């Protein structure tokens, strides 16, 4: 399975919206390392993380 960071690296899309059942805390260092910015919103039913290149 391809990682989210790999998908971001190979796409021309400017924003990725990811839905999870918990905060993807291990993803954040990888995103920062590659120059991405993210914002996470914890909702009752899920967690939404938006990732983009600033």
Description:
It is a single chain. By secondary structure, the chain is an alpha+beta fold. The protein has one domain (4-52). Strand 2 and strand 3 form a beta hairpin. The chain contains 2 helices and 3 strands; from the N terminus they run αβαββ.
Quick summary of this structure?
With 54 residues, the chain is of the alpha+beta class.
Notable characteristics:
54 residues, 3-stranded antiparallel β-sheet, 3 strands
Estimated radius of gyration: 11 Å
- Sum up the overall morphology in one term: globular
* Oligomeric assembly: single chain
Order of helices and strands: HEHEE
The percentage of residues in β strands lies in 25-35%
Question: What is the number of strand segments?
Answer: 3
Our count of helices gives 2
What are the SSEs and their pairings?
Elements: H1 4-9, E1 15-20, H2 27-33, E2 37-42, E3 47-52
Antiparallel strand pairs: 1-3, 2-3
């Amino acid at each position: 399975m391809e990682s989210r960071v790999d998908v971001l690296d190979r796409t021309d899309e400017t924003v990725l919206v990811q839905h999870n059942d918990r905060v993807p805390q291990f993803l954040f260092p990888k995103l920062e390392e590659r120059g991405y910015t993210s914002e996470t919103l914890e909702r009752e039913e899920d967690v939404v993380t938006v990732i983009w290149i600033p």
